Amino acid sequence: MMRRFSDRELHEECGVFGVYGVPGASTLAYYGLHALQHRGQEGCGIVSVDEGGKLRRIKGEGLVTEVFKEPGLATLTGSMAIGHVRYSTAGGGGIENVQPFMFRHNTGDFALAHNGNIVNSKQVRDYLENRGSLFQSSSDSEVLAHLIKKETKFHDRPRIYSIIDALNMLEGAFAFVIMTAHRIYACRDKHGLRPLSIGRLGDGYVVSSETCAFDVLGAEFVRDVEPGEIVTIDSHGLRSADYSQYKRRQMCAMEYIYFARPDSDIEGCNVHAYRKESGRLLFEEAPVSADIVVGVPDSSLSAAMGYAEASGLPYEMGLIKNKYIARTFIQPSQAMREKGVRMKLSAVRSIVRGKRVVLIDDSIVRGTTSRRIVGMLREAGAAEVHVRIASPPMTDPCFYGVDTSTYDELISARLDVEGVRREIGCDTLAFLSEKALYAAGGRCELCTACFTGRYPTALYTAREEANKDGKF
To answer: How far apart are CA 260 and CA 63, in angstroms?
Structure first.
């Protein structure tokens, strides 16, 4: 696995999008991917199906607006398309790993896009290679396609049976969108770790990692794909099949805390409302005497509003984000990433000077960004800086698609709260409790593995790889 350390610290996962039964599907996919751009900025792609059932693809490294230009997009004709925005986790980067993947087969061509991480991909990949499969990428996502294609005994049965068999061989977090010449399959892992929603658009349907993409297109939310479910979308409408009877709702807590856009709804809970409530709970758990509340743009602003509202302190824009700077982790060199925080954020001196500041952030991973922001506020004249984090200490790696897979990336894996406080240089530091994560969304289940070390799936060799130095 390829890992990159960055100033923003947390790397997004990926985003998937699909359109069925709507003319100009590739253009709609373009706008849908643009709405999901925050989930991945290294590469993107769209595959469409024309009226003759032929699959066509455009993909490339870079942002949606850079990869897709009008003349090229116009060649992706038809009323069906799927798309993907990528940040590399398992398998690393490179054009060969940019999705959607396309596959030619005598039983029918198909394409697929994936959000998440398959934790037993190495074992399944070895199994397939030993039986003659040849992989075109290093991505774990390609494993599913080979599992679907490996079936040789029953060429005449519907493809969904091969998909069911394939999904039952995978363990981990995933939202798959699979497209053939006639239909789209939307699949979600049995643990419910990754979001996937269905919307109605005219006489057709759209599928998206987040509901914010529906609003851009004017689509109406229909429902979420259930854990362990495959939804078939074709001329018959929506049809449901369960590939697993083991069903949990262990949505990744970081979707609510950081990854998703605030205008998205995840399993019936608005992300902004969740973050704002977590800010209120953070004040109840960790009040402090201060003058103003400042949030770190953008994902922490909702929590900062909640903290300010509960505390009665004024919410101020003490930090300003330069919206024209791309996220620092996609910069081509570490030297450029090192300058990323100051390029992206600046303190408003007239607002913070002489003030006791409560600084709200969504998480602390390596501590690099937090230390620099605290220093920036002090340089701007802040009298005190009290850091409040709207999530618990991140003590354990994630193996489900968030790019923190080793213990040495996590400051809270080696330091207690006081040690972290000294490291980032603030006056006081407090984290939200695990209990409050559930309370903020009224949830009974979440995946909180990165805070607790309680993983919802078997990890195979992943944990050993995360702890190669034997320190933890």
So the answer is: 18
Average pLDDT of the segment spanning 341-352: 88
Q: Look over the chain and give the mean of its residue pLDDT values, rounded to a whole number.
A: 89
Q: What is the spatial distance between Cα 126 and Cα 128, in angstroms, rounded to a whole number?
A: 5
Total count of domains within the chain: 2
Question: 17 near 196, Cβ under 8 Å?
Answer: no
**What is the DSSP-derived secondary structure letter of residue 257?**
I
| Residue 346 domain-assigned (yes or no) | yes
**Which tokens belong to 47?**
């595959």
Q: Does the annotation count 14 as an active-site position?
A: yes
Residue 336's pLDDT band, with cuts at 50, 70 and 90, is low
For the stretch 148-153, contacts whose Cβ atoms lie closer than 8 Å and that sit 24 or more positions apart, written own/partner, are 148/110, 148/178, 149/103, 149/105, 149/107
Strands 428-431 and 384-389: parallel
**Phi, psi for residue 7 in degrees, rounded to 5:** -70, -40
**What is the rounded distance in angstroms from the CA atom of residue 89 to the CA atom of residue 12?**
9
Query: Most confidently modeled of 116-130, 140-154, 356-370, 389-403?
Result: 356-370
Query: For residue 12, what pLDDT is reported?
Result: 54
Longest dimension (CA), the chain: 75
Q: Which residues of 241-275 are buried (b: 16+ CB within 10 A; e: fewer)?
A: eebeeeeebbbbbbbbbbbbbbebbbbebbbbbbb
| Cα distance between residue 8 and residue 368, in whole Å | 8
Comparing 70-84, 254-268, 312-326, which segment has the lowest mean pLDDT? Answer: 312-326
For 45-88, the pLDDT digits (tens) are 999 999 999 999 999 999 999 999 888 899 999 999 999 999 86
Question: In sequence order, what are the beta bridge partners of 266?
Answer: 269
Q: Determine which of 3-17, 249-263, 303-317 has the lowest per-residue pLDDT on average.
A: 3-17
Domain that holds residue 204: 15-248
19 and 116 share one domain: yes
Q: How many CB atoms lie within 10 A of CB 119?
A: 23
CATH number for the domain including 410?
3.40.50.2020
Per-residue pLDDT, averaged over 224-230, amounts to 98
Q: Which long-range contacts (CB under 8 A, 24 or more apart) does 333-339 make?
A: 334/5, 337/6, 337/7, 338/7
